[in-house]
Amino acid sequence: MDRFDIFETKVNTQTEDIIKTAKGEIPADLVLKNAKLINVLSEEIYDADIAVSNGVIAGIGKNYNGKEEIDIKGAYVSPSFIDGHVHLESSMLMPSEFAKLVVPSGTTSVVADPHEISNVMGLQGISFMREATKRLPLDVYMTLPSCVPATNLETSGVDLNSYDLALLIDAPWVLGIAEMMNFPGVINCDGSVLSKIQLGLEKHKCIDGHAPHLSGKDLCAYVASGIRSDHECTTCEEAIEKLRLGMYLMIREATGARDLEALMPVLKTSNTRKCMFVTDDRHPKHLAKHISRMVKKAVANGVEPIKAIQMASLNTAEYFKLNNLGAIAPGYKADMLVLKDLVDFEPEMVFKNGKLAAQNGKLLIDTDILKAPPIRGSVNIKYLYKEDLQIKAATNTVKVINVIPKQLITKRSDEKITVENGLALPDTKNDILKIAVIERHKATGNIGLGFVKGFGLKSGAIASTVAHDSHNMIVIGTNDDDMYYAAVELVKSQGGKIIVENQKTLAHLKLPIAGLMSDKSAQEVQKTIKELEDAAQKLGCTIEDPFMSMAFLSLSVIPELKITDKGLIDVTKFEVTNLFV
Predict the structure, then answer these.
(1) CA separation (Å) from 352 to 151, 290, 337, 363, 365?
(2) pTM for the predicted model, two decimal places
(3) 209, part of any domain
């Protein structure tokens, strides 16, 4: 008997066991007794026992016997939750540490877009994330990054084209093409952009969207290309227009962009079967209550519990064609939550593939044995001089990036600037700080320089190698000395986040894995993040999470004014613009 016959025999035996368990002829591996079953397929709640065989739900009804039986005494049983769009790298944690935080709160599957690490390391980065997620008590599916780089207005570590993506598109853990941020490229029929969309369509896989404020005929063109989802809606009007055109609405609650509250009227008045919950980019402190918090918030604001749970499970599974996930029914994966009520949505038990994976907020599976695959250093900048950060004044008026709290969009203002010895300087009295983006992949020497308003720093500087999407080094400061010192320290640590004052380090989170992730535990990372937050407040920062806000100032696909290593970007015109008015 060859190995294929052995595999087929094993599969057939498992299928026979499931069938016989469903008929009641043999005992189940596990039976949850006296459950209030939340049926997201029929939108009902009713009493039932749930029988599990080989990690699959075999039967629902009464009088099932099991090798293990758990009487849950009338507690609710829900399908576990699915995050439909997340960048694992944004947690700054290794995936094993990410799983420790999210699984106990009920998330047992995620659809990850590894475009952060792909912008740094290309296909090697995707392979790294796949190897790092293989053996977790968390199913990690992926979509392939469509915009590496996001635009031609920045320098990334690599350039992934459709031929590169074709090498991975057939993998069963690949569900489609990730967020198509280059919406101008789509509606203007850019050949390289359309070839990536076509790759997904030919393989009958999903194409995710990213189209903030796109409307009217341009939005129709975007949807007509085959793109079927969007996670950038911030107003009800935008959300309803996209739902009407057949798009799935990915409702986002990230660390930096929280849209659930603004979109709540849509969830209470519209058909929610094309709505799902996503987290996009979250820092560790917001991971312990993951999708469960979104469900709780939705229900607290008047959304029916079953519909909220659908958005956290079935809707997401159906969109991504995960036909064995998202519901409790025969043949579905036994990924289940035991909930004491439909108010808090904090699971007493989390089952993954029919096994108890977490209980009362604690992960029961040891992930500490998982080691990170080896990966090369990724912070490579041309030798930097302090003079490289100087801005020669052409006039005394500049275009300033204005940060909007809890939003990724920015606004432009024209401001009078302080000029001394021919140099344009920050003005802390008016909250106008200098910002620099330093290319860190190919040592090109590119440095984009400008000014930003809204951080409130009175002294010092902050810097990071997490800067969406190409993740060049970004520095904001009140003076060139501290900005230079911060940049040099990040080169020494091969990535990270740092706060300095008077050329001394106040707090420093080292991120040696692609300049994006730590190799430390979630607890250690959270402790250092708290030190960064405290240090930022000490310098006068008025933004709750300055590093998250700073990270999106280089994302040149979200209006209105951004900055990359190539200069100040007018996103509305999709071009580099002059800093001076």
Answers:
(1) 39, 17, 9, 11, 11
(2) 0.91
(3) yes
